[in-house]
Specification:
Layout lengths: L8 H10 L11 H10 L1 H15 L7 H13 L4 H16 L9 H13 L15 E6 L6 H14 L4 E5 L5 H14 L2 E3 L7 H14 L4 E5 L7 H18 L6 E7 L4 H14 L3 E5 L9 H9 L3 E5 L7 E3 L2 H9 L1
Parallel strand pairs: 1-4, 1-5, 2-3, 2-4, 5-6, 6-7
Antiparallel strand pairs: 7-8
Helix pairs in contact: 2-13, 3-4, 4-5, 6-13, 7-8, 9-10, 11-12
Length: 333
Amino acid sequence: MKIFGSKNKSEAESATLDSQGQEPEQEKGKGFFKRLKERLAKTKSSITGRLDRLILGKKEITGDLLDELEEILFTSDLGVETTQVLIDIVQDKVARKALKDPAKLKSTLKEQILDFLTVPPADRRTPAPGEPLVVMVVGVNGVGKTTTIGKAAALFKSKGNRVMLVAADTFRAAAIEQLEIWSKRVGAEFIKQKPGADPSAVVYDALEAALSREIDVVLIDTAGRLHTKKNLMDELGKVNRVAGKKLPGAPHETWLVLDATTGQNAISQAQMFNEALGITDIILTKLDGTAKGGIVVGICHQLKLPVRYIGIGEKIEDLRPFDAEEFVQAIFD
């Protein structure tokens, strides 16, 4: 049963709900959670491993203990702002005698971090009945953008959607080739032009083809590096505008792909792209290879942007819908 491309309002409404990336219940469970905990082991060690050692044998919450806690949170890549807010919350609870036992610090932080991660969906436009959901995927080179698009296409395909991949990163021939390989692997339609072509023209032609072929989901790969930051943002802005002219409301969603291993740089990238394009969703890749997974907390808290997917490995099924409760449980329990 298809999710997108519905011909009546009620079906289109349910399509929007289903587009949030939730997978069938049978695909969730103990096996995935165990793998999630394994892949987040470095992040867990960075945060709760050091926290456990800090509070071991402590009888009270002192100023020195809070200073050490602040260092643990900051060096776990939660960011200056998020770390300070967490410390302020703990200090307030201590001052009010609501928190006395160092052993309760962990549960306090767990509860507050879960609150930070629970970000409501950003405003997003809904495709009209019979029109495809158009997703523009952005991010700097090297974050795993093209691979993420291929894996996301597989998720959409698994739910019966007709998917089209669009090679609008025309500045790198390798990106076009890589996306074409992914399209064949997952069974998606593919639109490209020659290297160096106008990315906006590629997107315009792709949306025309998507309408005629009754495509349900269009995923657009974009450039990640031009001569200057301004050139890149101008180019992406043009792609955005052309998509909207061809299909009013498009792109309906704009996903930003970030590399978790870059730590605090990911927050500055998110701010830059969000100011220029209005990001609806964050996708965080390479969480399995880093102790900097705390960056998820900083991004959600500072930018109030929801995390849509996380990448925890190289396999096609390792791009998973983000679940804040599972993430916090994997780190703290």
